[in-house]
Amino acid sequence: MKPEFVDNRQGNTLVATLRGHLDWLAATYARPVEVSIASGYFNPEGFGLLADQLEWLARVRLLLGAEPTPPPAKPRRRLGEAFQRYDARVVREAVQRNTEGLLHDSDLREFSPGTEAAVRRLLSVLESERIEVRRYERG
Fold this sequence. Notes:
- This protein is of the alpha/beta class.
- It has 4 helices and 3 strands; from the N terminus they run αβαβααβ.
- A 3-stranded parallel beta sheet has the order 1-2-3.
């Protein structure tokens, strides 16, 4: 039985869940199919763990999102600021914080030969245009 939620407990990891589903797709369908994945975070090492299965697919759509802002850190609406402008500002600031965090994290990560190989493989797949990557920035 497939897990309804991935919670990283007792082997219920995103990699294990995706591998299981992608293996099932390959065993069930004679031709490559399309897959859509939504995730809050993405890195080359994670891609490397799934590259064989992802490269078999006809098309992959990957939707990345920023981490939600916890309630104490959520900014307050400014005096006279319309709700639409407030919402747009909150999302814009959250996306900016997420971008800064990703850049910071990437500067701290060790760049091993395995990471380099995963990055090169990822770039090759991205250049093939079989993977579409978008970032959700609406809320």
